[in-house]
Amino acid sequence: MAVSSLPTSKNLEFPLLQLLADKRAWGIVDIVDALAAQYSLTEVDLAERLPSGQSRFYHRCNWARLDLKAAGLVEFPKRGYLRITERGLQELHECRSSRELTREEHQRVRDEPAAPKAENIAKTPRRLSKRIVIDPNILMGKPSIRGTRLGVEFIIDLLAHGWSEAELLENYPSLVPEDIRACLAYASAVVAKDIQTTSIHTPGTNPGYSPSLNAG
Questions:
Q1: Are residues 82 and 151 in the same domain?
Q2: Could you give the CA distance from residue 64 to residue 94 in angstroms, rounded to a whole number?
Q3: Core-most of 70, 155, 158, 170, by most CB within 10 Å?
Q4: What is the CATH number of the domain that holds 174?
Q5: How many structural domains does the chain have?
C-alpha cells in the first residue's frame, strides 16, 4: 500500500497557526481550502480517501486543529470554527523568531555545554545530550533539537516520508547534518529502550513529557 504524499497533521500545525494569526475565527472548510492552496495540492491529492470514505486531507486538517486545541493554542468560538489564543500567538512568535536565527547562531546555542545539574544527561549518549533537549517551554515538552523549535518527531516523520538529508538542510537552514543524525540516534535509542523520553531535559526545568497528540 502506497504511502500518502499529503502533509501530515503535525506538519500542518504551524501553517495552520500562521493562517490564524489574523485573530479572526476561521471555518474548517476555509482552512482546508487555504492549506490545500498553500501546499499546491492537486485534485488527485484531494481525492485521497480513508477507508471510511472521508477525505484524507480534511481528516488531517481536522486532527491538526484538535491537537492545537488540546495544547491550548487555539479555541473553538463556535461549532466548526477556530481562533488562535494568546498562547498560540506567543508560540507562533517564538517559532518565527527561532527561524530568523542564522545557522551560526543556532550552532553556537547548540554547542553551549549543558549545566552540570542535569543528572540524567550523563546517562545518555553524549551526542544526544548535546543536540537533543526536552524543555516544557518548547513544543510543549517534546524532544527537540537544541537551539531550534524543530521536534525530533518532526524530523523523523519527514525522513520516513522520503525527505533526504539534503532536502532537510535546504528547507531548514538552522539544521546541520549532526542534528539529523542525532534525531535518528535518539529514535533508535528510544525504540531500543536504552533511554526514556524524559532522560534529556533542560536543567532546572520539569522534565515531564506528554506523548504527542497530533503527530500526523
A1: no
A2: 19
A3: 155
A4: 1.10.10.10
A5: 2
Please classify residue 145 by burial: count the beta carbons closer than 10 Å to its beta carbon, then call 0-12 exposed, 13-18 middle and 19+ buried.
Answer: buried
Cell of 187: 529514535
Residue labelled with grid coordinates 524543555: 135
Instruction: Read off the amino acid at residue 8.
Output: T
Residue 85 and residue 23 share a domain: yes
Q: What are phi and psi of 186, to 5 degrees?
A: -65, -45
**Rounded CA separation 121/133 (Å):** 10
| Structural domain contains residue 59 | yes
Residue with cell 525522513: 159
Say yes or no: 133 and 183 in one domain.
yes
Residue at grid coordinates 487555504: 34
Q: Which residues pair with 133 in a beta bridge?
A: 144
Give the range of the structural domain holding residue 145, as residue numbers without chain letter. Answer: 108-191
pLDDT single digits (tens) 116-168: 333 343 344 555 657 888 887 777 778 888 877 788 888 888 888 888 888 88
Q: What is the pTM of this model?
A: 0.48
Give residue-wise pLDDT tens across range 75-113: 999 998 999 999 999 888 777 665 544 445 445 544 544
